[in-house]
Q: What sequence folds into this?
């Protein structure tokens, strides 16, 4: 199992050399806020919402002083906006009062912030501070169980078992690759098995569509010729940027080489 898991990771690295966090951010505070907002919604909707949010509140001090009703209105498109507003106000005030307005770079400190659990903390540490970590979201947990890397359901137990399989240096990028694959090819309800490059390694091959032509029609984002989730994707991303809130999707003819 360990040999197969590590080979799958190597294959995913070749398939998604451009794998990256799919939340737009320019600093640790923006990534922290965006990750809190991403609960129960898509990264795309978060990315469409945060430009106006960060224009209004660019720092923890600014957000800590926000009127709750104004903050709620700005983040309303992400859903559960009242609870998320309370979390953002709480974590911004904590950053201002306990961490001199800076996002801490230790998991022990991050998980003390309102609305921040291990998943959010690992996202921030891995992508804003370069501290390796496994991010167990719904896609990651679903795929590692589908691949028989673990039978655990609890995210912390999944994290511990997967960490034991791979070198620490691989943890952050492994998380991105698995999530990319889950969003693009290995979908929850109907995986595109017939278009999956790691099908020969997959113990769950056949759970989805095996006909190659039908499977290709199930591909999403850049694999399906559609826009991705980031409005500002990394330079090496081979797909189209996502449209802004209320904007039309970019024309496929405008795809960058």
A:
């Amino acid at each position: 199992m360990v040999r197969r898991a590590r080979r799958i990771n190597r294959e995913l690295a070749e398939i998604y050399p451009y794998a990256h966090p799919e939340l737009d951010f320019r600093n640790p505070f923006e990534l922290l806020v965006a990750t809190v907002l991403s609960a129960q919604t898509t990264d795309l909707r978060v990315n469409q919402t945060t430009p106006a949010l960060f224009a209004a509140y660019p720092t923890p001090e600014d957000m800590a002083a926000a009127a709750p009703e104004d903050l709620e209105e700005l983040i309303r498109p992400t859903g559960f906006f009242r609870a998320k507003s309370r979390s953002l106000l709480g974590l911004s005030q904590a950053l201002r009062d306990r961490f001199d307005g800076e996002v801490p770079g230790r998991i022990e400190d991050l998980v003390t912030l309102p609305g921040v659990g291990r998943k959010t903390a690992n996202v921030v540490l891995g992508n804003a501070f370069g501290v390796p970590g496994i991010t167990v979201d719904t896609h990651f947990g679903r795929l590692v169980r589908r691949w028989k890397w673990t039978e655990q359901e609890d995210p912390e137990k999944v994290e511990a078992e997967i960490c034991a399989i791979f070198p620490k240096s691989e943890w952050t990028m492994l998380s991105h690759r698995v999530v990319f694959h889950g969003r693009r090819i290995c979908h929850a309800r109907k995986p595109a098995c017939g278009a999956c490059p790691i099908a020969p390694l997959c113990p769950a091959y056949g759970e989805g569509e095996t006909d190659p032509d039908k499977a290709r029609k199930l591909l999403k984002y850049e694999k399906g010729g559609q826009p991705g989730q980031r409005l500002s994707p990394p330079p090496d991303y081979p797909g189209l940027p996502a449209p802004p809130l209320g904007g039309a999707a970019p024309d496929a003819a405008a795809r960058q080489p």
